[in-house]
Design a protein that fits this description.
The strands form six sheets. A six-stranded mixed sheet has the order 18-17-9-7-4-19. Strands 2-1-23-22-21 form a five-stranded antiparallel sheet, sandwiched between helices. The chain has a four-stranded mixed sheet with strand order 5-6-8-16, with helices on one face. Strand 5 and strand 6 form a beta hairpin. The protein contains twelve helices and 23 strands. It has two domains: 15-75 and 374-492, Beta-lactamase (3-Layer(aba) Sandwich); 78-323, no CATH class. 28% of the residues lie in helices and 26% in strands. The two termini are 36 Å apart. By secondary structure, it is an alpha+beta fold. The longest helix is centred in the last third of the chain and has 16 residues, at 338-353.
Length: 494
């Protein structure tokens, strides 16, 4: 036992530096650590600590998703969104439903990639075809993804927040609604304004007014539910405090706001906005729209329309494309955007499976692809494409293998540019900022409660390194863990 203890201490000492304090040592000894660094030029393993042990990498998972997207879809791939009808155009009238058929584009109506006003563009395109009336509904066809937009292993407290928005066959406005809260005079609060949500949401507001507790606002809402619950507290006197929440039914939001924009643009509609997915429909409770007055009989009079929606025999009126995947993955990694990562992740499964995409067929597809490339993912447990699941676990060695593969890929430049510079950009603008490695490391960070991870490339003194380091199960402040990680990277990347 004494010999074993000595060996353990010797192993730890390899990975300690004189700068580390006794408390730092305690953090290391109480943590689960998976770490590997490889000199890219020589192939030398510079550092290896439990590198084949799976640990929770949090958002570092996005490296696998974005690398897979570049390799399997290509940097120039664009998500299509189709505007269709299941009827026909007669003079100035669509006799049938107007349909938005999605493929999971996360940038549709997004504030990050230039399609913020996509619904206006669709209205313009419809009107350019001379359409003034629609004898039917405005339908969002989100059937390309299955009915489970939120992975099973996500935490309930996350999915009501905008960073926990699920990926749907149609995403819109970053799947985010904004609620504004104001403190009242009697210890109560009120919702003063709502942006980009459905009109039939039932909001249960349990946010109080308090000087005694730290100000916080929390939201809870399940996918497809019209009931939202708010909890937390505001300081007295606060007005119009914003809270970004996940939209519970983005496809229906898309149909509703397109419907509103069409009417505002002078297009009459006899029906209502609704969503279809896997053959079932979800309807928004709305009053019947008012069709703009027209002399003579209604253009829809005498037109026979099918009451049953069919997923086949649609006529494509127009197609709208996202920006290239190379631009999308840059937003994904720079901003650690969960929705972008999840949408890419599911879309990969959609294209390969050629059916309604699910997390499971995406996992199988990605695992199979990297296995063919010689990357061993046998010990990898992934449940999503973004790393929000605390049960996800990936060995540092597997992450480094993917980094080494991408270094030799024709898509390397796109992959590298998607990783922000430590000490300067994105989510890592404070990382390594006071070290010799500032602005020499292209890196993705990841953090969950009790989990901290970094992975990427180091360029220092003419040497190039690929690394991944994951700390789990620590109870100390993350800044103390970050200090240790910085010390190790500076020490090992000579």
């Amino acid at each position: 036992m004494k010999i074993l203890a000595i060996l353990v201490l010797l192993t730890l000492n390899i990975f300690l530096t004189p700068a580390l304090t006794p408390s730092d040592s305690a953090i290391i000894q109480s943590s689960v650590i998976s770490y590997k660094m490889v000199n890219i030029s020589t192939g030398e393993v510079v550092a290896d600590l439990n590198s084949k042990m799976a640990a929770t990498p949090a958002s570092v998972t996005k490296l696998i998703t974005t690398a897979s997207a570049l390799e399997m879809l290509g940097p120039n791939y664009k998500f299509p969104t189709y505007i269709e009808t299941d009827g026909y155009i007669s003079n100035d009238t669509i006799v049938g439903n107007l349909i938005i058929r999605g493929t999971g584009d996360p940038t549709f109506g997004s504030s990050f990639c230039g399609s913020k006003y996509i619904l206006d563009s669709i209205v313009i395109a419809i009107k350019k075809k001379g359409v003034k009336y629609i004898c039917g509904d405005v339908i969002a066809d989100a059937s390309c993804f299955n009915r489970f937009p939120v992975p099973d292993k996500w935490v309930w407290e996350d999915i009501g927040s905008n960073y926990g928005a699920g990926a749907y066959g149609i995403n819109i406005f970053d799947n985010t609604a904004v609620y504004f809260f104001s403190a009242g005079v009697n210890g109560t609060t009120s919702i003063s304004r709502v942006e980009k949500d459905l009109p039939d949401m039932i909001n249960n507001n349990d946010i109080s007014v308090s000087r005694l507790s730290k100000e916080s606002l929390l939201a809870y809402c399940a996918p497809y539910s019209n009931k939202r619950f708010f909890h937390g507290s505001l300081m007295p006197g606060r007005k119009n405090v914003p809270l970004k929440v996940s939209t519970s039914n983005p496809p229906l939001v898309a149909a509703y706001y397109l419907y509103k924009n069409l009417i505002a643009g002078g297009v009459g509609i006899t029906g209502a906005p609704r969503e279809v997915i896997l053959g079932s429909s979800l309807n928004c409770t709305l009053s019947d729209p008012i069709i703009p007055a027209k002399k003579g009989s209604s253009p829809c009079s005498g037109k026979t329309l099918s009451s049953e929606f069919s997923f086949e025999n649609h006529t494509v009126l127009d197609t709208f494309f996202s920006v290239p995947i190379a631009d999308i993955i840059k937003v994904t990694n720079f901003k650690s955007n969960n929705l972008y990562a999840e949408s890419i992740f599911r879309h990969i499964g959609l294209l390969v499976a050629n059916s309604s995409a699910s997390s499971s067929n995406s996992i199988d597809t990605i695992r199979g692809f990297w296995s063919q490339k010689g990357v061993n993912l046998d010990f990898m447990r992934i449940y999503d494409g973004c790393g929000l699941s605390p049960q996800g676990a990936i060995p540092a060695a597997s992450i480094v293998d993917i980094l080494l593969y991408m270094y030799n890929s024709k898509n390397y430049s796109y992959f590298l540019s998607s990783l922000p510079l430590a000490g300067k950009e994105g989510t890592v603008y404070k990382f390594l900022v006071n070290t010799p490695l500032r602005e020499k490391v292209n890196v993705k960070s990841g953090s969950l409660s009790g989990a901290r991870a970094y992975a990427g490339y180091i360029f220092n003194n003419g040497n190039k390194y690929a690394f991944a380091i994951i700390f789990n199960n620590f109870s100390s402040p993350s800044k103390e863990v970050n200090k240790i990680i910085e010390e190790w990277l500076v020490r090992d990347a000579k």
